[in-house]
Amino acid sequence: MKKIYILLITLVFYSTSAAAVEKFKFKYNLHENLPKKWVTEFKNIMNIVQEVMPINENTNDWVKNNIKSTNMKQGYNMDIYAWKSTKNPFPEKRANMKYSGIEGCNSPEPWMQLDIFPQDYTSSINKIRTYTVIVHEYFHVYQIALSHRDRCLSENSAKWLVEGGAKVLEEIYSRQYYKKDLLKSDIQERKRWSIKKVTKEPHLYEKHKTSPQKNGFDSNYAGSAFIVLALVNELKKNNISQEKAFELVFREFWIQRAKQPSGWNWQTTFKNTFGMTLDEFYEKLSKYKRKDLKKILPSKTLTVQDIFS
Ligand SMILES: [Zn+2]
Question: Are residues 122 and 258 both part of a single domain?
Fold first, then answer.
C-alpha cells in the first residue's frame, strides 16, 4: 500500500511539472562565420526579450494551436537564421537568403533571418545595431503572435505602427542596455525623412510601397518612428502615463487587432485602442514641427520592463 502511495505522489508531482506553460520555441541556426561575441550577445538578448515579451500557449488560442502544430511537425516553432554576410549561408535549408527580417510571412512557417554585415563591426554604433536588430525582429514575431496574423503584418495594419513601433522599441532597448541614444540622432538627420510628408501626408506611411525605406522618406524608419512618438505624446495629453502609452502602442493595439477580421480595417482597432479616430490623430499630427522631436522623445530612464510589466 505504502508503495502505491509513493507511486501516486510521484505521478501527481510529475504531471504538475509536466504541465508547465509551453513556450513558443525558436531554433537557432547560427552560421560558424559569426563573431563569438555576437553569438553570446544574441543568446543574451533572446533571453531578455522572451522574458519581457513572452510568447507562450497562454498568449491566446491562435498561438497555442500554432505551437501545437509546428511542434508536431518539427519539434519547435520558428527558425532563426543568422550569418555574417556570405552567399547562400544555409544552402541546405533555404534558397539564397539576404537581409534581416521576418520572411515567408505568407507561408505556414515564417522564419527570422539576421544578415550581419562585416563592416557593421567597424564602428561601435553599427555594432550596436547588429544587436538591436535582434530586438526589432523579435518584436515583429510578438506583434504577429498577439494579433493572430500569420500573414505579412503591414498588409493588415499601418506600416508606421508596425515598423515605427519596432524601431522605437529597439532604441529604448539600446539606450537601456548599451547607453546609446540612436533614436534621437537618426530622427534628427534631415536627409532621412521629410517632416512635410510625415505631417501632411501620413497615409503614405501606412504602406511599404508608398513610403520606401530610403533617404528623404523613411530611412531607418525614422519617419515612422516620429509618428509613433507623436501618438504617444497625444496619449499622454489624455492623462495616460508614458509607460501605459507605449504599452498601448506596443502591445494593446495588437491584442485588439486580433478581435477584428483580417483585411484593411485596422482603423477600427486604432480607435478602440487609443480612444481617438485615425483622422483625429492625423489632424493633431499635422501641427507638429521638426523641433518638437526634443519634447516627444522617450524619457531617458524608461526601461522595456517598465512598459511591459
Ligand atoms: Zn521591421
Answer: no
